[in-house]
Amino acid sequence: MTTQQGETGGDVGTVELRGKVKWFNAVKGYGFLALDADNSDAFLHVTTLRQAGHEDLKPGATVTCAGVRGPKGWQVMKVLDVDSSTAVATAPKPPPVPDGIAMGDYIAALVKWYNNERGYGFVTREATEGDIFVHAAVLRRHGMESLAPGQKVMIRIAEGQKGLQVVEIRAA
């Protein structure tokens, strides 16, 4: 079989592809390459990447692979080579800063749940229905490490893009 670059492929039905990583998220378990031949996308699943001995890919890294064209486009079936020297340096994202200005005084709230690994959770006001988002960056700014379900806290809130969120917090 002849590939896009004119070389013979090893697996029946596959084509040798080469492209740069558009993005890859190991947590989500997949990412996409922008193919050199026509800049179309090729889907890359983390299990395929792991079979080649890699856990993650940085944007811009060059990947040579065997792929197939399916009804939804190209899919990488086997990673043949990864050249990380072409990857572009990405600056770490700063923690998100809550938008909005605190409304009113501190109010009593109860922690509904909080996930340390994800870095966020929700609290509820004792007298009012509705959840209020709380982000780990707010905790850190106010000297708190984590929250536990049922914990009482004092909060100041603001209207964010997706609803109410905690902008200031302290122990009750």
From TrEMBL:
Annotated ranges, domain CSD: 16-78, 106-171
Keywords: DNA-binding
UniProt entry tagged with the keyword DNA-binding: yes
Coiled coil: none
PROSITE patterns: CSD_2
GO cellular component: cytosol
Top-level taxon: Bacteria
One MF annotation (Gene Ontology) recorded for this entry: DNA binding
Keyword DNA-binding annotated: yes
Gene3D superfamilies: Nucleic acid-binding proteins (2.40.50.140)
PANTHER family recorded: COLD SHOCK DOMAIN CONTAINING PROTEINS
Protein's name in the database: DNA-binding protein
Species this protein is from: Reyranella soli
